[in-house]
Amino acid sequence: MRDADRHSRRCPLRLPLVIGVLIAALGAAPAVAQLRGHGGPVRALAISSDGQTLLSGSFDSSAIRWSLGRDAAEQVLRFHADAVNATALLKDGRAATAGADGRIAIWSSGKQQPDTVFEGHTAPIAALALSPDGATLASASWDHTVRLWPLAGGASRILEGHTQNVNGIAFSADGRNLISASYDLTLRIWPLDSAAAPAITTLPTPLNSVVASSDGEIAAAGADGKIYFLDRTGKLVGEAVAGPIPVIAMAMSQDGALLAAADVRGSVAIIDRRARTLARRLVGPGLPVWSVAFIPDNGTLLTGGADSVIRRWNALTGEPIGATIQENPNDPLAVYAGDRGAEVFRACVACHTLAPDQGNKAGPTLSGIFGRKIATLPGYNFSEPLKKLDIFWTPETVSKLFEIGPAAYTPGTKMPEQRIGSDEDRKALVQFLSRATVPPVKPDR
């Protein structure tokens, strides 16, 4: 839940599922450089060609469409039964999400259910790529295959040959080839205009990601901490050291000058592609960085971390944009282990506190919420439309909020539209909040 306007079948590290992102409700807060809303590590980032829209995917099984201009979440997409490992923004404005459940969902803006679901993979999908002409979506899977999905309809094309998890894919700039990178140490370049066999390059290490530049050069991220550079035919032409541990995510700036390589210790190396050297290193909270993406300005990098936060960085200086958020490593819900309502609420922890002495986060504290009129908590900047509503927060009204959605129940809110369809989950949530948000009684003096 949130009162602000902004607000592998698993991964290699097994993380608990989260019911969904419960961002809802009740007000507005000033824009910040960080984006907070996911209830689990941010596994995927995709940015629109104009740099205005971000689509993030998380281990909490949801995706969020963000406005980067307003630092605001616009829509929460909940469909997948497991982690959302990959996202893509299509040329017609729609979104694609792919999960550890092996499915791909295609979404229109504002709709609560996918327009189309692609099924066929038999293991988690690790990556998505959109063809340069926008007509085809490619997916890489741990079932050792790559698939090509015509977005206009029709059967998928299956590319087989890898013998281990396929972790990364990229189209060549001319759209004639698809490049795949696998844990089997091979990089394959598949010709798409013929049935010819792919060109295969074997590298010294398992591969976790791949990108292709507009000039045809290919960069593959290795489990040995190196970036391997290959020409358009697959010939190895150079390498750069990102660090001593596996690179798990990689992105290239639009002009091809910089590569961002992230690792599980939270370090992000910025590589000068042409010089094949480490230019600088971004230092965050020290938690794993699972996803990276450049904004089209070629200098701003977004990172998605294990602390559920999306951060902005100046990749040219190595400095964070805005204050660096240091998260408390302690789990505030640990004392509620086994409580179903606490698990439903877990996705809200990034934005709300439960106790009065913990204060406000991106959203206001929920301490004492029941019995309080909407948008009246002192010390928090609520939006004007919410101040005009005659709603008092009770277990019934909070349940109704998630039953019919914020747009219908709190008109004027800019929060993403979402619902909790399960009666049992809504009941568990409000019962948990009824217990956990009661302020402690101060002793008489």
Describe this structure in words.
GO terms for molecular function: electron transfer activity; heme binding; metal ion binding. By secondary structure, this protein is mainly beta. It is built from five helices and 29 strands. The protein has helices spanning 340-345, 384-387, 395-404, 406-409, 423-436, and strands at residues 35-36, 42-47, 53-58, 62-67, 72-78, 84-89, 95-99, 104-107, 116-118, 125-130, 136-141, 145-150, 157-160, 166-171, 177-182, 186-191, 199-202, 207-212, 218-222, 226-230, 236-241, 247-252, 258-263, 267-272, 277-283, 289-294, 300-305, 309-314, 319-320. The strands form seven sheets. Strands 1, 26, 27, 28 and 29 form a five-stranded antiparallel sheet that branches. A four-stranded antiparallel sheet has the order 2-3-4-5, with no helix packed on it. It has a four-stranded antiparallel sheet with strand order 6-7-8-9, with no helix packed on it. Helix 3 runs antiparallel to helix 5.
Describe what is shown at a glance.
The chain is mainly beta and 445 residues long. It has helices spanning 340-345, 384-387, 395-404, 406-409, 423-436, and strands at 35-36, 42-47, 53-58, 62-67, 72-78, 84-89, 95-99, 104-107, 116-118, 125-130, 136-141, 145-150, 157-160, 166-171, 177-182, 186-191, 199-202, 207-212, 218-222, 226-230, 236-241, 247-252, 258-263, 267-272, 277-283, 289-294, 300-305, 309-314, 319-320.
